[in-house]
Amino acid sequence: MGRGLAQCTLVGLGSRPEPNGAKAIHGFRESEKSRWSEASRAILQRVREAAFDPGQALLPRGHVLDLEPRGYIKPHVDSVKFCGATIAGLSLLSPSVMRLVHTQEPADWLELLLEPGSLYILRGSAWYDFSHEILRDEDSFFGERRIPRGRRISVICRSPPEETGPGEPGHPPAAC
Q: What's the CA gap between 86 and 12, in Å, rounded?
């Protein structure tokens, strides 16, 4: 599913790492893209159909995250200032393990094996109540199985932030 998209996302990525405010991501480049090839647009349309309700607003640009083989993403909960209730990530190039840990009940956790071409969707409680991370290569196991990490590209589609204030209906909890 993601082969043509992976080739497309490489165009326009900077050659130096971009800073990220939370310092959660290490060994990466990122960009936002609004122009895609016809084949990539068709794939992204399938992502939108799978992850978002018909007519649901999306942020206009896809977020492209290029993680080098030794790069990783530390556990974090994204700020509700930058995205809304749903994100969908298309994983490309290398398998990786994503770990979700409940922020209030750390004994509640889940690991996802993200194979190249796989789509993960986080919404509602999975998005706001759980931290998420991509494990370092040396820690990359799924159960007992070693998952060697290579370069990983993910293309992330996001709903826009809610326009309500904290504590108002429809606004996610202020956990981040």
A: 26
